Amino acid sequence: MSSGSWPSGSGAPEAVCLDAYDTLLTLDDPVGRLQQALAARGLPVSTALAARAFLAEARYYRQEHLAGSDAARLHDLRLRCAAVLRAALQPELPPDLSWSHEAWGELLLASLAFRLLPGVAAGLQSLRARGVRLAVVSNWDCSLATILAQLGLADAFCQVTASAVVGAAKPDPRTWDQALAALAVPPETVWHLGDEPAADAAGALAAGLRPVLLRPGSWPGVPQIGSLPELLPLLDG
Asked: 136 φ, ψ to 5°?
């Protein structure tokens, strides 16, 4: 069920931009995977510590993700994220542990696996069947297009824009420029779906698009839905 509203006469969109994380996809049990990867290397740690360590790494990544603009810089960013992970795990690690930076980077990657959220594949297919063009605009590093392809969405979008490649992160309106150019439609005919009020709602409005928020986000006058499939009824007003 949706809530919120736009001014009358907003009309159905010619295109839809979508955020990626917690809109199209999410991580598949990263804490459990981290524990499994450590245990496989003879280093069991508690769930509580693994959760704190992953949260510390995730916060660091969000702050620094713009550095991951190409493959070499992304590799360096991942090593720095892995160092944050290691520091947070230190209380339960052997004091004489001497893994290399690369080994910690491999451990971090072993804990990261993505899956599509329920209804996303069918929802995207339905949007495309109705002639709606699609693009992704997300605060992410340069690996975003590869991840979407691995999840079976290689051909779903006209454009995949990662903020690290642009050099600006949502809510900066410049984050949408590549997508709008690829979609080749006026911004006022484009909707943007995402889950973060400041980044997705305020950013899209500043770029001239019409935002839709996934709960639990809220923004005055912006429709809210619970999942991507609930976007379809909004097309009919």
From this structure: -110, 135
